[in-house]
Amino acid sequence: MSETPRIAVLSRFPGLYSTQRLLQVVDAAGMEAVLLAPEQCLLTVNGVHADLYVQGEKFPYCAAIIPRIGGPITALGARLLRYFAGAGTFCLNSAEALQLARDKFASLQALAAAGIAVPQTVYFTESRQKELALQMLGTPLVHKILQGSQGVGVSLAETPVAARGMLDTFLSLQHEAMVQRFLPGRQDVRVIVLFGEVVAAMRRESAAEDFRSNLHCGGRASAFPALPESWAEIARKAAVALGLDFAGVDLMADADQNALVLEVNPVPSLEGIEKSTGVDVAGRVITALQLRLASA
């Protein structure tokens, strides 16, 4: 009799909805669910061998790993995923895809190169470039830190004076700036893509006092069953362009009602999408993993 497959969820926060749902579904599917805390991991290489230790013990083989890695520890998460890939573990999103998607400007470059429309965006590192950036974008404009998520590090400047002050601040603190043309409207759409298939979509609307539609910033979510096929196709292509097996693709209409990809999240939250749509996204993820493991 073959051993029960071990599926690990890589997460710093065991109490989060997404982490709990994935562990519950793995267990319900008759597999061994393992919670792996990244900060408890010790990686080694010696000659041609690589190993992983957790709390002093060599970590046993896992059939698959699901990364639930936040932005601040993307580099650690990527190193762990590289280890697991080398050990023959199936990784739901590779280290390379995770790092590309987490770099907001690099991911926009990859999307544009794949023929996927994105908002006009400017990246620069010296203060003397800010006037050209303002000339290109005008105001209002949005500044985003390159590694932010959940709406953190996203700022709106409504006038040239405010924009100059904001850019000076970020350039002095981070030595780089990424600014984007502001898209009016309080709604965007989050599309969940799993192995090239759209499994759910929700509309997000910002709170009255905030321009950001992220649910962590007080935005509201509702099911969006009437997702246009053209938007679904863009979401699928965006996930493929970044090499992501599992992704949350955020889209918004421009002035001509054409879809633009705002960004692609390689670790999309399950709570908002499951509660607003009723779709068992965690179940879809685990079923898809089972099929891939069975065919390996």
TrEMBL record:
<dbReference type="InterPro" id="IPR041107">
    <property type="entry name" value="Rimk_N"/>
</dbReference>
<keyword id="KW-0479">Metal-binding</keyword>
<dbReference type="GO" id="GO:0005737">
    <property type="term" value="C:cytoplasm"/>
</dbReference>
<keyword id="KW-0547">Nucleotide-binding</keyword>
<protein>
    <submittedName>
        <fullName>Alpha-L-glutamate ligase</fullName>
    </submittedName>
</protein>
<keyword id="KW-0460">Magnesium</keyword>
<keyword id="KW-0067">ATP-binding</keyword>
<dbReference type="GO" id="GO:0009432">
    <property type="term" value="P:SOS response"/>
</dbReference>
<dbReference type="GO" id="GO:0046872">
    <property type="term" value="F:metal ion binding"/>
</dbReference>
<dbReference type="InterPro" id="IPR004666">
    <property type="entry name" value="Rp_bS6_RimK/Lys_biosynth_LsyX"/>
</dbReference>
<dbReference type="GO" id="GO:0005524">
    <property type="term" value="F:ATP binding"/>
</dbReference>
<feature type="domain" description="ATP-grasp">
    <location>
        <begin position="108"/>
        <end position="290"/>
    </location>
</feature>
<dbReference type="InterPro" id="IPR013815">
    <property type="entry name" value="ATP_grasp_subdomain_1"/>
</dbReference>
<dbReference type="Pfam" id="PF08443">
    <property type="entry name" value="RimK"/>
</dbReference>
<dbReference type="Pfam" id="PF18030">
    <property type="entry name" value="Rimk_N"/>
</dbReference>
<keyword id="KW-0648">Protein biosynthesis</keyword>
<dbReference type="InterPro" id="IPR011761">
    <property type="entry name" value="ATP-grasp"/>
</dbReference>
<dbReference type="GO" id="GO:0006412">
    <property type="term" value="P:translation"/>
</dbReference>
<keyword id="KW-0436">Ligase</keyword>
<dbReference type="GO" id="GO:0018169">
    <property type="term" value="F:ribosomal S6-glutamic acid ligase activity"/>
</dbReference>
<keyword id="KW-0464">Manganese</keyword>
<dbReference type="InterPro" id="IPR013651">
    <property type="entry name" value="ATP-grasp_RimK-type"/>
</dbReference>
